[in-house]
Amino acid sequence: TREELDEKAKSNWKKHMLPEKNDTDSIEQDIVHHTITTLCRGVYNIDKLAMYQATAHSVRDRLLEDWNCTQEALHKENPKRCYYMSMEFLIGRALDNALNCLKVKKNYKESVNNLGFSLEDLLVEEKDAALGNGGLGRLAACYMDSTATLDYPTWGYGLRYQYGIFKQIIKDGYQNEMPDYWLNFDNPWEFPRTDIRYEVRFHGYVATKMNEKGESRMSWEGGDKVQAMAYDVPIPGFDTKGCGNIRLWSSKPLNTFDFDSFNAGDYERSVSEQTNAQNLTSVLYPNDNHLVGKELRLKQEYFFVSASLQDIIHRFKRAKCPWKDFPDKVAVQMNDTHPTLAVPELQRILVDVEGLEWDDAWDIVTRTFAFTNHTVLPEALECWSVPMMEKILPRHMQIIYDINLFFLQKVERDFSPDRELLKRISIIEETSPQQVRMAYLAVVGSHTVNGVAALHSDLIRKNLFNDFVKYYGPEKFINITNGITPRRWLYQSNPALRDLITKTLGSEDWATHLDLLQGLKKYADDAAFQDAWADVKLQNKKRLADWIKTNMNITVNPHALFDIQVKRIHEYKRQFMNILSVIYRYKSLKKMSAEDLEQQVPRVVIFGGKAAPGYYIAKLVIKLINSAADVINNDVSIKDMLKVVFIPDYNVSLAEIIVPASDISQHISTAGTEASGTSNMKFVLNGGLILGTVDGANIEICEQIGKENIFMFGVLADAVDDIRHNQKYHGLFIDASLQVVIDAIQGGEFGDPSVFGPLINTLTYGGDYYLISTDFKSYLQEHTVVDDTFRDRAVWNKKSIMCTAGMGFFSSDRAVRTYAEKIWKLKPFKVGV
Ligand code: GL9
After folding, report:
1. Is the peptide bond before 253 cis (omega within 30 degrees of 0)?
2. What b/e string do you get for 595-632 counting C-beta neighbours within 10 Å, with b at 16 or more?
3. Is the CB of 135 inside a 6 Å radius of any atom of ligand 1?
């Protein structure tokens, strides 16, 4: 290590550790240098992809400089750190973000130009890092951006999947899935750490052993081992020397060999063990808000947790602090229940390996972990069968039983001996086979539990965790409303609006102090400002219209109202209700006289989103949207008053083009089902209005921007149970307007109606669980209000300005600061000023 080097060697090091220069000439030199040495190419065979790679490498050099400074300073000072454990990080592209953070974009643009390319062309060569499903993974990425920007000493831990979320292809209107082998080309944004490897065990048995102190301890032995190797993804902070990190684990075979099979002449088998090990981190499970319960997934979760904790403990031990100080040096945030095995794993290490007493160990564990819940949907709550866990993680299963036993004994002694309560609150569910309720394990193992929006946090206190709130008291259960990074979601993705805001407010401080957007309010009535504002929106709509024309060959009118719903396709998000209303609009347009038709507000309805490959009903919704689009877009009689577009393969990079282009975006989940939502925040930040239900973060957005600037409809969350109950016993009420639409579909207007039978049945025979029939009428009414409001452009522009101006609260900087202060007890750690 550095400490062992003599003074002369150290000064030699210092002499050569010069910062990279950012003048255009030096940048050009670096790019050319990387072209030759990293890519082994030259002026005779350079192309866009290679040029992107060389450029990316030169930017990476600059990041790594900051990365090293930050890690060195952290190593020396050893402040408390936070680890954000997440099975998903939906990062998207890195180059543009890095250029903005380092404040070198202007010079890079010029340098790339001087070398015969355009920076804009290079940016789109980059593949998205799509190691996540949707909101949950994107939230983790936004939080890493904010912890880096605010200089909080925080690392993300995750898995390096070789296949990210699948590519969606639309064929005959149906979703098809293609693997996303994103690491086909070299990835300049990850740094392989061939020296950082840990062993992870599965299966095996539990034995009793003497430890060094002569005490009897349990020991997990035998079984199979795989190796976890680290890949570091540097996360630049905006305008700071500090650089964050996400450490992703990749499974590798241990370099041991099955000599028994080898000697028995079964070479193939001894090799296949190795491939099995590698397969562990191959693929991200493509489910959103839905548990599949596959053995490989459980293995992924343990692999992730085990490697991360070994790494954290290794770092902790370097400082030689006593174990009881662990929670003063380490905070771990569990992003949903996916990392919950970290609780029994840390307990196991402390008791079995380090020889601590159970209670001392448990005290350390529960002062270290905190847990974020992201959903109330029962089908999304992780439960693992006890037999499966016993097989794969025999020692952990014992520890979970013990955690549960001691917990239930305490509840019984200190709180209530009620058998029903004890059964309800138990970590083990007494089904056949028994199940481990991971959310309960996470609650019991954490000091703080948070929901992700005010309504959601209320609901989990009232329902899912009600018994725990009564037992522990309410302080353990808090709310931290989600946030989004204004750097990616405005500064980077909407340059025209960024420049207008910066010019108007006189500086770009708003990018790190989003509350400053309030300053726009005083221009909301200013006609010239409104015009400039509307012009930006039009530019962004043209950018999207061009994309649609180029990629889908559909012509849309940029002056029409752009009405957008992009998110995972899920019944609770009710894309079905949206397309039903579009069909209603279409039928109404068709009935109009030519004169009336002229008077309508033209609309472009845009959908996007992936359905989980096994989610049959969600996939039928995609088919219905595309079938309806086919008919509507080709019906000349409605004079382009309505267009429907399903944008395939919605991802972070597409969102960066789509979000700035909305007039209206829809967030129309059944009240009480969407924990928070974060795309709602992105759209409003970019001056798009919301058409939404009284659900998730819509409610707080409404409070912040004012109810006159948002279109809300539908029943409230606390009415939902009663309505469902009534529907069950008294049947549905299908409104005439909804019936018109059902009849049209069943009458074959959008192709073979038998295709859509199962979808329609979710309404009529399925009891309409998501209350589409209940909300449909008020939904249509609110659409009319939207149209009428859009006619008066001054009114609309003012609302749009007020939307952006009121969004300060939804910066992920605010969210992360709250986590740091209330949960992690973490202070910023500034390097190299
Ligand atoms: C989710 C919720 O459904 C969203 O409402 C919430 O905004 C995000 C982030 O807190 O978390 N929970 C969840 O399982 N997903 C969410 O988006 N789905 C995935 O992305 C996997």
Report:
1. no
2. eeeeebebbbbbbbbbbbeebebbbbbbbbbbbbbeeb
3. yes
pLDDT in tens, 337-358: 999 999 999 999 999 999 999 9
Ligand 1, atom nearest to 482 Cα: 10
- Residue 198 tokens read as 């840990």
Residues in the chain: 833
| CA 603-608-611 angle, 5° bins | 140
Q: Which residue minimizes the CA distance to atom 17 of ligand 1?
A: 135
Amino acid at 210: M
Residues 61-117 pLDDT 10s: 999 999 999 999 999 999 999 999 999 999 999 999 999 999 999 999 999 999 999
Q: Does the domain at residues 78-93+128-481+819-824 carry the CATH identifier 3.40.50.700?
A: no
ipTM: 0.97
The domain spans of the chain are: 78-93+128-481+819-824, 486-602+625-637+657-810
Provide the pLDDT for residue 771: 98
Tell which atom from ligand 1 comes closest to the C-alpha of 678: 7
Catalytic residue among 167, 338, 374, 799: 374
From the CB of 678, is ligand 1 less than 6 Å away? yes
> By the 8 A CB rule, do 744 and 750 touch?
yes
Q: Which of 682, 783, 798, 799 is catalytic?
A: 682
Q: Which two tokens stand for residue 428?
A: 């083990």
For residue 77, CA distances in Å to 73, 315, 482, 829 come to: 6, 13, 31, 9
Distance 135 CA to ligand 1 centre (A): 5
CA distances from 261 to 257, 309, 335 (A): 9, 33, 41
Share of residues in the chain with pLDDT > 90 (%):
94
Q: Which atom of ligand 1 is nearest to the CA of 288?
A: 21
Mutate to test the pocket of ligand 1, among 374, 379, 382, 650 (most ligand atoms within 8 A of CB): 374
Whether 567 is catalytic is yes
Phi-psi region of 215 (alpha: psi -120 to 50; beta: other; left: phi over 0): beta
Task: Provide the CATH number for the domain formed by 486-602+625-637+657-810 in this structure.
Answer: 3.40.50.2000
338, 437, 498, 567: which one is catalytic? Answer: 567
Q: b/e for 68-104, b at 16 or more Cβ within 10 A?
A: ebbbebbeeeeebbbbbbbbbbbbbbbbbbbbbbbeb
Active site residue 521: no
Rounded Cα distance between 625 and 57, Å, is: 42
Q: Environment class of residue 25 by beta-carbon count within 10 Å: exposed (0-12), middle (13-18) or buried (19+)?
A: exposed
Q: Is 827 a catalytic residue?
A: no
φ/ψ of 15, rounded to 5, equals -55, -35
Mutating to test ligand 1, I would choose from 88, 131, 136, 143 the residue with most ligand atoms within 8 A of its C-beta, which is 136
- The rounded distance, in Å, linking the Cα atoms of 557 and 479 is 42
CA dihedral sign, ordered 368, 372, 377, 380: negative
Residue 534, judged by CB atoms within 10 A of its CB (0-12, 13-18, 19+), counts as middle
Active site residue 410: no
CA dist 319 and 79 (Å) reads 11
Best residue for ligand 1 mutational test, from 91, 166, 375, 698 (most atoms within 8 Å of Cβ) = 375
Q: Where are the extended beta strands (E) located within 203-242?
A: 205-210, 216-221, 224-236
Q: Is 573 a catalytic residue?
A: yes
CB 161 within 8 A of CB 180: no
Question: Is it the case that residue 31 has pLDDT exceeding 80?
Answer: yes
Between the CA of 126 and the centroid of ligand 1 the distance, in Å, is: 26
Q: Determine whether 678 is an active site residue.
A: yes
Across the beta sheet with 561-566, what order do the strands follow? 642-647, 603-608, 561-566, 664-667, 689-693, 711-713
pLDDT at position 833 over 70: no
Same fold for the pair 78-93+128-481+819-824 and 486-602+625-637+657-810: yes
Task: Using CB atoms within 10 Å of the CB of residue 380, give its burial: 0 to 12 exposed, 13 to 18 middle, 19+ buried.
Answer: middle
